[in-house]
Structure formats: structure tokens, C-alpha cells
Amino acid sequence: MKNKFIHKQKPKVAIYVRVSTDKQELENQLLQLRQYAAKSDWEIYHKYSEVISGKEEKRTQFDNLFIDAHLKLFDGVLFWSLDRFSRSGTLFTLQKLRELDNLGIFWHSYQDPYISTAGQWKDVIISIMSTLAKIERERISERTKAGLQRAKAEGKKLGRKAIPKSAIDEVKKLLMENKLSYREISQKVTYKTKYGKVHHVSPAMITKIKKQCSQKEGEQ
Predict the structure, then answer these.
(1) N or C, where is the chain less crowded by C-beta within 10 Å?
(2) What homologous superfamily is domain 9-129 in, according to CATH?
């Protein structure tokens, strides 16, 4: 089965590039990706690039890429290589690629041309990805179970902390003002875990909060 976007006139693609420290390397990669997009007859919607080490967790441009993907602002994503697309583990990478596919957005790795849903092998690639994701989930599940059993034995309190009320209230306030887009609200509202890790309130959560507010208004 061929990807439907291949038959679409001038598909819009987003380019994502991440390098560790060398800005010259970033420019070199962008140049080759632009040339590849032109050769493939793809229109470049936007270039999401960042100079950031693999150890750093905050990747603003990567987050912006997926916010815009949910807004359906482009048809495909072109990136340099799989290891440059994500270094957050196999399952996370597969989930993000599957997320793009579920949104109807194709993706293509320049250095690994076989890692692509932009051609006739899309179904095969998706099948392999699903199998790998299943294997990785099972491995994580086993490790998680072992960790939970150990934590329980040590008397530790289990469970993930919810988004703090202060962050939810701020989202509600910004929604009422109706001046910012969901993407802008997501970038503006953050909260910290007990370990100091900073999180943004996702567009999906903002949508959920908006829905809850609308339901309450309807009950009044």
C-alpha cells in the first residue's frame, strides 16, 4: 500500500534537526535535508532545530514539532537519523513515530531511508515498529513490576503525582482570557515534580481542562 501523501501535490514537511554542540554540523545537516526535500518535491513548512546534548531533557523544538503536528500544520516530518530524532529509549521513539502516523503524518529518516513511512513499505515498517514496541513494553513492564514490588516491600508510597491545582487554575484563567492558542498556553504553563523536573501542560490536557470547564458551565 502506498502512502497517500506521495500522490499529493507538494506535501508540506517539517524538518527536525538536533546536534550536540557543533552549529556548523547543524547547518550542514539542514542544507542536505533541504536539498533532499527539494529533490522529493516536498515543500518545507518549518525547520525545527536545536543545539542540545543528548543528556539534556528539555527539547523545546521537539515539543513544538509535535504541538504543530497535532494542529495538522504539515503532512510529513523529515529528520537526519533515528538517533538524532530521539535518544529517550526505543519505546518512546516508537511511540512518537506512531503518534505521527496516527495523525496521518508520514516521516522519513535521511540517513536511514528504510526507516520511513513515505513509500510503499509503510505497512511493513509499521508492523515491525508495533512488534518492537510490544517487546519493549513487555520488558519495561517486567522492570516496573520488580521495582514496584521492591518499593512496596520498603513501605514507599506508590503512584504518580497529578498536575498541581495551581497549574490547572492558570490554564483555566488563560482559556477564559481567550488570547493565547493551546500551543502558547502549553509553552507558558509549567510545573515541577518533587525531583525538580519541569513539565509543560500538554495541549491534550488543555483540551481536557477546556472540556471539563464547558461541562460545568452547561450544568449551571
Answers:
(1) C
(2) Resolvase, N-terminal catalytic domain (3.40.50.1390)
